[in-house]
Amino acid sequence: MALIISVVALLIALGTFYFWNQDRKKPKVEENSFNTRPLQLQAYERLVMLAERIALPNLISRANVAGMNAREMQLLLLESIKQEYEYNATQQIYVSPVAWEAIRNLRDQNMLIINQVASALPAEASGKDLNKQLLDFVMSQKKGTLHTIVLEALNFEAKKLMR
Asked: Are 137 and 70 in contact (CB under 8 A)?
C-alpha cells in the first residue's frame, strides 16, 4: 500500500513539474495586449489612399460633372474632400500625430486653394473653368505639391513600423 501511494505521489510530482516547466517556456503575454502593428500599417495604407483621393488632379477627374457652374463645382469638390476626410478620421488613433497633422494640412490646403481659385473667377464661370484653373495652379507649383510631401511622410512613417 505504501508503494502505491509513493508511486502515485511520484506521478503527481512529475506531472506537476512537467506542466509547470511547460508553462514557464511560454512567452508571457498580458491578457489584454495584442499586436497593433497590422492595424497601424493598415491605417497608413488608408491615409495614403485618402491623400491620393483628395489630391486636386485626382479629385477633379473623379468629381468632374458636365454642365455645372463654378460655384456648384466648388461645393462638390469641397464636399468630396470633407467626406473623404471624415470617412478616414478614425485612422488617427493608429498613426503618429505628425502623420495625422500632415493629412489635416493637406485637406485644409486643398480646400483653401479651391476657395481662392473659385473666388477669382467671374460669376458666370463654368465648373470646367474652375477645374482648368485648379489644374493650372497645381502644375505651376515649383516646389512640388503638398500632396507629394504628405505621401513621402506617410511612407516614411509606415516604413519605420516595418523595421
From this structure: no
